[in-house]
């Protein structure tokens, strides 16, 4: 089973003067042992929340030959769509669209939990997950009971968690953000922060690091948070080289967030910070 970060020492801690500066790398990279990333998927997930971070890690593995493993996780083994209408969400009134993508699932929640608990390897040779990526999307407003339970049971065995956009609401409802600083989508601020009454929500932040949890603001912010995660755990030179290779201009200041002003969240705090 993966060695987890000392949960008790980080539960109420912060990580320095800025939102995006971790105290130290969350795991040791030696170029030999693979780091196993898992992506939690659900109907109605936001495409860029998933594909943005995935592309960064794909490039990290390809360009630097790191032995990264990646597993797609969901409640069932059925492919998961981005379509929010077919996910049963009525948030938007426009007609159902065929502009939707789906992802194949590698392993169900329950199958992965058995592996985390026993330390065994699955049929595809992938064992315990080290880092869990939790995207957001309109689907987070649906019944998330299975996803919340999965995060709650997985967290003690994880080395790190990266949430994107309203994916933070899943973490909040699972209780793993209690007493921590975190951020989320600014347009959905009131709804999102209402899901975490015991969370210290930071309104003006592109992303926030607290202990072994990184949470990003809305959608595209997940890409910047992922590069920051790579910088902290694999090195800044590598993170910048990956961004340059992607011809992407990184947002490197976690505290600079003009979208907080755009969506009237400027200077706001949520829940514990009020």
Automatic annotation (TrEMBL):
Gene3D superfamilies the record matches: 3.40.50.880
GO molecular function (one): transferase activity
Domain (DJ-1/PfpI): residue spans on this chain: 39-224
Domain of life where this protein originates: Eukaryota
Keyword Secreted belongs to the record: no
InterPro entries: Class_I_gatase-like (IPR029062), DJ-1/PfpI (IPR002818), INH-QAR (IPR052158)
Keywords, ordered alphabetically: Glutamine amidotransferase, Transferase
Annotated segments matching region Disordered: 1-27
Bias kind Low complexity: ranges: 10-21
The keyword Coiled coil belongs to this UniProt entry's keyword annotation: no
Descriptive protein name: Class I glutamine amidotransferase-like protein
């Amino acid at each position: 089973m993966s060695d987890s970060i000392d949960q008790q020492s980080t539960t109420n801690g912060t990580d320095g003067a800025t939102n995006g500066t971790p105290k130290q790398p969350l795991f040791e990279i030696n170029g030999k042992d693979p780091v196993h990333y898992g992506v939690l998927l659900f109907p109605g997930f936001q495409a860029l929340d998933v594909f943005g971070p995935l592309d960064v890690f794909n490039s990290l593995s390809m360009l630097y030959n790191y032995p990264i493993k990646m597993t797609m996780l969901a409640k069932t083994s059925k492919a998961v769509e981005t379509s929010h209408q077919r996910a049963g969400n009525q948030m938007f009134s426009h007609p159902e669209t065929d502009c939707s993508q789906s992802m194949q699932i590698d392993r169900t929640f329950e199958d992965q939990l058995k592996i985390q608990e026993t330390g065994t390897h699955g049929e595809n040779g992938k064992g315990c997950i080290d880092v869990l990526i939790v995207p957001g999307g309109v689907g987070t407003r649906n019944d998330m009971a299975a996803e919340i339970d999965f995060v709650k049971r997985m967290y003690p065995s994880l080395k790190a968690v990266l949430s994107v956009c309203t994916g933070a609401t899943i973490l909040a409802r699972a209780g793993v953000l209690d007493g921590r600083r975190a951020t989320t989508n600014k347009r959905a601020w009131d709804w999102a922060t209402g899901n975490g009454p015991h969370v210290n929500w930071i309104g003006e932040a592109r992303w926030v690091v607290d202990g072994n949890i990184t949470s990003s603001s809305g959608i595209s912010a997940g890409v910047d948070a992922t590069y920051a995660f790579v910088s902290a755990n694999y090195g800044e030179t590598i993170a910048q080289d990956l961004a340059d290779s992607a011809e992407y201009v990184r947002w490197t200041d976690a505290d600079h967030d003009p979208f907080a002003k755009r969506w009237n969240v400027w200077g706001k705090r949520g829940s514990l910070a009020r």
